[in-house]
Amino acid sequence: MKKPLILISLFFITLAQHSHACSQISPETAFIISNDPNQDGKLSPKEWQNAQIDRYFVAFRLGNLRDFKRLDKNKNGFLSHRELANKVRYERDPCADWEETMQKMSEQSQNQQ
């Protein structure tokens, strides 16, 4: 009786790992979202000057208006995620903790057998 219950539990754990996989948004999109108080999906010069880079590595001088103008490829006065592509990366992968947690759960499940 215990063996079928364990197999069913393992099946659902495996299913949960695949159906609830961590998906991350691009770092440039996350950077804009976290620094866009009016939530219009782009950064204005004022938002740029007040932006924070807590969880990111960036390839520009944050707050520097010359860099803002250089990055503003379409010259519309705002920065989009497309204009910041490949210029922002995560300091730590946002899914790293999720993967570690799922691994620990899987190991605990195997140890209980």
From TrEMBL:
InterPro entries: EF-hand-dom_pair, EF_Hand_1_Ca_BS, EF_hand_dom. It holds the Pfam family EF-hand_5. GO terms for molecular function: calcium ion binding. Residues 1-21 form the signal peptide. Residues 68-94 form the EF-hand domain. Transmembrane segments: none annotated. This is EF hand.
